[in-house]
Amino acid sequence: MNTPICDFVKKYAEKSHLRLHMPGHKGQGFLGVEKFDITEVDGADVLYRCDGIISESQQNAAKIFGTNKTLYSTEGSSLSIRAMLYLACIFAKEQGRPLKIAAGRNAHKVFLTASALLDFEIDWLYGDSLLSYRLSAEDLEKYLSEVTERPAAVYITSPDYLGCVTDIKALSAVCKKYDVLLICDNAHGAYLKFLENDRHPITLGADMCCDSAHKTLPVLTGGGYLHISNSAPKTLSLQAEEAMQLFASTSPSYLILQSLDYNNSYIADGYCKKLNEFVRAVEGLKAELTDNGFTLVGDEPLKLTIATKGYGYHGFAVAADLQKKGIVCEFCDPDFVCFMLTPENGAQSVRYLQKALCELEKKTAIAEEAPTVTKAQRCCSPRQALMCASEIVPIDECEGRVMASVSVSCPPAIPIAVCGEMIDRNAIDRMKYYGITEVRVTK
Predict the structure, then answer these.
(1) What's the pTM?
(2) Which residue from 134, 200, 213, 386 lies 20 to 30 Å from 173 (Cα-Cα)?
(3) What is the pLDDT of residues 25-55, one digit of tens each?
(4) DSSP code at position 182
């Protein structure tokens, strides 16, 4: 597969141009990549108003992912999430529906900032866990059949941070029955498209999804996709570029664009075989750990999440032990340690991780449990709360106060308390559990 962006930038870098344009390093610098870091010069195309090399590259990506439209993001999934929610609001207006979106409570905090920017109402769908929530088709059917005013869209996070994958095909069938969009935060699952059994949200019936290419594919940090399916309402594709422009920087990174462009060629050249061979190695690792008494969570193929308390450790203790052996995890908290693997790690790394984990001495299980998630009292919208005068108070003094910030989150950026909600004793207990000592509340 061709790489039009990479080819153009390479030719540009090889010429002795006097660069009297941005960036300020003028192709010189300390990192060695500056000569490839350009701006939207003649021939380089313009992201979200493209008709040249970027357009050609994005069409390559759309063919690979089987979408009606795939747009690049150089600002990760955060940009694509805001754009998807904006498009859902446009869809709501066209359908004469209220600006309301139903969402799993484990949504990334960028969902909240988007709510504040776009001022849509949120119907939260609750599970028992803060970090992980698999909405079932039965629960979604019950919600949509009973709700007074149907939302414009249902928003889910799958895979979630712990590696749990939702049954998107079943949810899609319910959403289509009620003429509701299905939007998926697939930030951790770009590679799912290339499994022997294609598990990508677009394949399974989502109308829109975002992928963080940089999380699970060999793409520079910040590289991501907005995908729109062939069966989605036409307005989503027609206004997709405008939606991305609304929230995007006008100075996209051409280093990231080159990385996304080259990734098309990489995927087309035997990546599926490489991926699926590595998945089998990870399956072997998971089986070995289970046999050694570890409790694993989730069913995402390339994510390994261990519930460590059953083995006698807090998650951060396991992470600290492994770091001494040169292994750095993705995430840890009192309950879990999480690892993200890709074929770029290689099979040898899987064996090394297995050896390091199995060297841990099993201890008496820790009985302490994380505080459960309870429904909070909504006092005002996220937008109203974020625009209020506010103050920071110690956690023990905030009961009955209204949350004013989206920044109080556990490490995966999942809000413990949502701005605009009253902070109750349960929320305080959860904040203390995750080491939060103060919060911002409305005055």
Answers:
(1) 0.96
(2) 213
(3) 999 999 999 999 999 999 999 999 999 999 9
(4) E
